[in-house]
Each structure stands twice: as C-alpha cells, then as structure tokens.
C-alpha cells in the first residue's frame, strides 16, 4: 500500500493530499529511511512523521483499503510521541 493512502485510511492524517504533501517534504520516514508519498508500506514497518514541533512514531499492524472510523486505530500502534525543543 502507498504511504499516502495508509496515512489517510488509518486516519493519522485526514486527507490524502495533505499526506502526500507531508511525505514529499521529507517529513516522513519508514524504518529510518526518508519516504516519499509513493513508498510502499508493509505490516511491521515503523513510520515516523514530523508534525510541526512533534514527532509521532507508529508501527503498522494491519493494511486495509478502507476502514470505518472506529476500526482505523487497529491499523497501527503508537510507539512514541515526542516534542521537539527549540
């Protein structure tokens, strides 16, 4: 599954266009490697996303093409959420 689609379907980011922009600005890594919006996501991958002054790290548990809002949280596990100090 594409990175931008995973971020949207899992509801980590609400819109796919926003997910694409974030990834294309080199603010997302998959297993420590900078990822583009078209990068493939697999179960077991660790994804880190930089949102302004915080970094969210999640582990991919499940890949689904579509999901209900209440089932979206099953797609990933939050590993870390850190604030970046300036």
Give an overview of the whole structure.
The protein is α+β, with helices and mostly antiparallel strands and 86 residues long. The protein has a single domain (3-83), classed as RNA-binding S4 domain (Structural Genomics Hypothetical 15.5 Kd Protein In mrcA-pckA Intergenic Region, Chain A), CATH 3.10.290. The chain contains two helices and five strands. It has helices at residues 3-9, 16-24; strands spanning 28-30, 33-34, 46-51, 54-60, 76-83. Strands 2-1-3-4-5 form a five-stranded antiparallel sheet. A hairpin with a 2-residue loop joins strand 1 and strand 2 (33-34). The chain is globular, with a radius of gyration of 12 Å.
Can you give keywords for this protein?
alpha+beta, globular, 2 helices, 19% helix, single chain, Structural Genomics Hypothetical 15.5 Kd Protein In mrcA-pckA Intergenic Region, Chain A, five-stranded antiparallel beta sheet, 86 residues
């Amino acid at each position: 599954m594409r990175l931008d689609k995973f971020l949207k379907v899992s509801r980590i980011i609400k819109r796919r266009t926003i997910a694409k922009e974030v990834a294309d600005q080199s603010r997302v890594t998959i297993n420590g490697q900078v990822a583009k919006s078209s990068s493939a996501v697999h179960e077991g991958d660790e994804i880190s996303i930089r949102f302004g002054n915080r970094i969210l790290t999640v582990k991919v548990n499940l890949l689904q093409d579509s999901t209900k809002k209440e089932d979206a949280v099953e797609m990933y596990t939050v590993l870390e959420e850190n604030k970046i100090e300036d």
